[in-house]
Structure formats: C-alpha cells, structure tokens
Design goal:
By secondary structure, this protein is mainly alpha-helical. It is built from eleven helices and six strands. Strands 1-2 form a two-stranded antiparallel ribbon. It has a two-stranded antiparallel sheet with strand order 3-4. A two-stranded antiparallel sheet has the order 5-6. The longest helix has about 50 residues. The chain is extended and about 100 Å long.
Length: about 350
C-alpha cells in the first residue's frame, strides 16, 4: 500500500500556489501530444495540423470538463458561484483568495473535445476517422497521467482496501482508480494499430476507447458518493453507458453495412516512404545543397582540365606547324616562282 498523504501544492511562487493537479494535467497533455505526433507520422498524416488542433481541442475539453464537474459537484459551489468558474476560494474572513482549479469531469471533456475536434478536422478537409485513430491512444495517456492529480488532491477514492495497490487517503477526500486502466488501454490501442491493422477500419480505435473508458467508469461509478444523479441514477453512469452502446453500435455498423471499403492497413504509408519531419527535411535540403556545391566544384575542375587539355592540343598543333615549315626546302636566291603558261587569243 502507498502509505503517504501528499501535499496538493507543489510550491508557491510569490505567494501563489502551484498545484500538483495542474502539473499532472500539463504533463499529461505534453505526453499525449508526443504520442499523437508519432501516431500521425506512423500513419502518414500531416503532423503540422496537430499544433493548432491540439490547442483548440484541449481548450474545448477543459471547458467541457470543468462544466461537467461544476454540475456534478454543484453543492460545493452553490454558496459561492464565482469559485466554480474562477480560480478562487473563500477565506475564513469571507474574502476571496487565489486557489486554482481543482476539478474536471472527464465525460464532459470527451464530449466537447470530440465535437470541436470533429469540426476542426472537417475544416482542415481531413478524414475524421483516420485522425480519430491517431488521437485515441493519446486520450488514454492523458487520462492515465492527469488522474494522478486527483491523488495529490486526495479525491475520487474507492472503498477501504488492504490490497497492495491501495492508496492511503485522508478521510475527507477521494482518490481516482483509473490511472492503471488508462496505461493498459493506451498500450492495447497502440498494439492493435501495429499488429491488427489489417482487421481494423479507420475509426475503430476511437470506438474501442469509448467502450473501454465507459466500462471502467461505469463499473467504478457506484463506488463514489455525493455524485450528480438523474432520478437517483448517477449521471456519469448514464453518460458512460451511452459511450459503451455508441461504441459497440459504431463497430458493428462500420464492420457491417457501413463498411467503408478500406482497411486501416491499406492507408498506412510504405515503410520506405516514411514522411520526413521538418528537421529531417531541412537537413536533407542542406545535404542536397552541399552535394550541388560539390558537383559544381567537380564541374569546374573538369572544365579546367578540359581547358588545359585544349591548351596542350593547341601547343602541339603549333609545334606541328613549325615542324612542317622547317621541313620545306628553302627557295634559292634569285629564283622566281614558276608562272602558269598563258594562252594566246
């Protein structure tokens, strides 16, 4: 058992706290970006679109995740609504102080991120399902790392346990149990993409992500207390059930009547035609330039050699002319050249 109770604050800068929660999600975003870039490169897609798209989708996911969390935990913000949307907390004297955000609802982030991601891909005139397969492993990685922020906040915990992977928590907090599932899910998707591409169609990895996340969250939602309910049923259970059913239906449809006619393996670039990165293209450009300079130098040297050879040939011709002149018998003094006979009229 992890027998520690961590401090949620990493450090303070000029009196402002920097939370482990924010660091966890920042690291999660960075690693997810790294995974997505490499998956796009593996599939031969234009990785230059990822920078802007990643920012747009991340902002949308954060907004949706925060909105879902606020609705889920409205009892915590009802008395002071400003703390729901601004990084503020209520001081003992009733004034507001800086605190930072410490709550995101993953289902809300998935919904808004997917909607905005779809619009961005369509706007870029790209194939949505191919990019969905690129993004899906990154979502698992993001979740696996970001969920450790809940550990430092001592929130989202399960029932008491003596198992080796149990985590010591303060009784007033809760702890997440999704991190390990996220790591395994990411490895499974990456393995499928490389070993079972001949059986997959574009978009399958996203539907598998929905099913995997939905099953895990649905199974664990009953362990939580004080969550958002709809007619007595946890809202997250309803949302994740929709994820599960939607993912299963999409897989069945895409492999049945809605089969797109192409397998994921057919869209992969040839191994020898791997797309170069910007750095590789720049190195190749300068290498070609150096090669051109070397070719020019060789041409100049060859021209110089040709000129030297021409000069030698000219000297040889002059010598031959002089030799011919020296070989003619000199004319005797006083002799006249023989004139052709004239004809009389």
């Amino acid at each position: 058992m992890i027998d520690i109770t961590p401090d949620p604050i990493f450090l303070r800068v000029l009196g402002f706290p920097i939370y482990w929660y924010g660091i966890a999600y920042a690291v999660g975003l960075a690693v997810a970006y790294w995974v997505i870039v490499r998956e796009a490169r593996f599939r031969g897609l234009n990785e230059e679109l990822i920078g802007t798209g990643f920012i747009v989708v991340a902002v949308a996911a954060l907004v949706g995740g925060r909105l879902y969390h606020v609705i889920d935990q409205w009892a915590l913000y009802r008395e002071h609504p400003l703390t729901a949307f601004l990084p503020l907390t209520v001081q003992p004297d009733g004034s507001y102080g800086f605190s930072g955000f410490t709550g995101l609802g993953v289902p809300g982030g998935i919904i808004t991120g997917t909607i905005v991601g779809t619009l961005y891909v369509r706007w870029s005139r790209q194939d949505f399902f191919r990019w969905a397969d690129v993004v899906a492993p990154g979502l698992f990685v993001m979740q696996a790392i970001g969920r450790w922020g809940n550990f430092f906040n001592q929130e989202l915990y399960g029932p008491p346990t003596t198992l080796p992977w149990g985590i010591k928590i303060d009784c007033a907090h809760r702890i997440a149990q999704y991190a390990f599932s996220g790591i395994v899910g990411a490895l499974v998707l990456l393995g499928l993409a490389r070993r079972r591409a001949s059986r997959l169609v574009p978009g399958d990895l996203l539907w598998i992500f929905f099913i995997w996340y939905g099953v895990t969250r649905f199974a664990l939602e009953g362990l939580r207390s004080g969550n958002w309910t709809f007619f007595g049923v946890p809202t997250a259970s309803i949302v994740t059930l929709v994820f599960i059913l939607g993912g299963v239906a999409a897989l069945l449809y895409r492999h049945g009547p809605g089969f797109p006619g192409v397998r994921a393996a057919e869209l992969l670039p040839e191994p020898t035609a791997e797309r170069l990165t910007a750095e590789d293209e720049e190195d190749e450009f300068w290498a070609d330039d150096d090669a051109d300079d070397a070719d020019d130098a060789d041409d100049d040297e060859n021209d110089a050699n040709d000129d030297a050879a021409d000069a030698d040939d000219a000297d040889a011709d002059d010598d031959a002319v002089e030799d011919d002149a020296g070989a003619r018998p000199p004319s005797e003094p006083g002799s006249r050249p023989i004139e052709p006979p004239s004809r009389s009229g």
